[in-house]
Design brief:
Strand 1 and strand 2 form a beta hairpin. The protein has 7 helices and 2 strands. With 117 residues, the chain is mostly helical. The protein has a single domain, classed as Orthogonal Bundle (Helicase, Ruva Protein, domain 3), CATH 1.10.8. A two-stranded antiparallel ribbon has the order 1-2.
């Protein structure tokens, strides 16, 4: 299974607690993690919980997202050895965007900067 296929099949509900844990270890909050997810995907508290409850794969999670933020293209840099702006697979790119935003949160960046305001 290649890198893209692995990301497609990841269960969002399995990764979500890790995002929260990573943020909380650095003194950030679940609310901030959720705000990042809402900003990137257009989900809200209810629709995000539905995705978690039905154990959506990353593929379904991003394909069913109400609206990917038009400013997502402003997310640049390297995460997990990949330059996010150069990733060609749209699902992989969105997953890495999310990784990058959570990483910025854990590194102490201000929310306005993370959300490309």
């Amino acid at each position: 299974m290649n890198h893209s296929q692995r990301i497609y099949k990841l269960i969002f509900a399995g990764v979500y607690p890790m995002y929260i844990q990573k943020a909380e270890k650095k003194g950030r909050t679940k609310e901030e993690v959720d705000a990042i997810i809402y900003w990137l995907t257009g989900y809200n508290a209810k629709t995000l919980q539905q995705q978690i409850d039905k154990k959506s794969t990353f593929e379904a999670f991003f394909n069913e997202a109400p609206q990917i933020n038009p400013n997502a293209s402003k997310i640049t840099g390297v995460i997990c050895g990949y330059r996010v702006e150069e990733l060609e697979d749209p699902i992989v790119q969105k997953a890495r965007y999310l990784d990058k935003l959570i990483d910025e949160l854990a590194k102490g960046k201000k929310m306005e900067k993370i959300l490309r305001a």
